[in-house]
Give the backbone structure.
Amino acid sequence: NDTITALARDDGRILWTYAKEPTEEITIAGHAGMLLEDGRLFAAFTDGAVAAINPTDGRLFWEIETSFDVELRPGNVPQFLDVDTTPVLRKGTLYVASFTAGLYALDATSGTVEWRDAAFTGVTGLATAGRMLVVSSARRGLSLIDLRTREVQWEKAPERGAPTAPIVTETGSVIYGETRGSLLALSLADGREIARAEGGAGFSATPTVLGGFGGALSNGGRFLFLRVN
């Protein structure tokens, strides 16, 4: 419900709450996660807002509205304003994506928009790998962007359903699932397929990797335990 609540670790009392007004528009299922980095809590919301919050007292450092970049359709047809990507941070720049307005690079200190790529719509997840940004999109599948040039290095089109948020491993692979398809591993270098596994009913949950092992839960409730080489 677009509410962030901070609790005291010792007794669970509420320290502060940051809440957004419920949007009346149609929204995409799911919510962005939060990023705690450099003394700031970064969050994104279903109304298209992105905010930096003081984790100590809930005070707002800045907030921007990506919904201002969404053009009205003829007849005021509803559009998805959601920013459902968990923010990622690299060298002072925060990356988020609006489902309709595109991919954003924001100054993490002020919230100023450094650039926006309106071509990346339907984005479901982001991950950084050095100067590269991995973008998962319901429309384009998996894309690798060089943040220095903002050029797409490779793309892997979706096969069966939308991709989950991607995970980049220490060994140079990208792991993700498709909502009606497989769990896939691609080479970060060139996007070629390294491996795939079937869960029986597709994957909607983001996979996880720790060290040389990983896990993924399929839509059918099957848990896959993986060795990541």
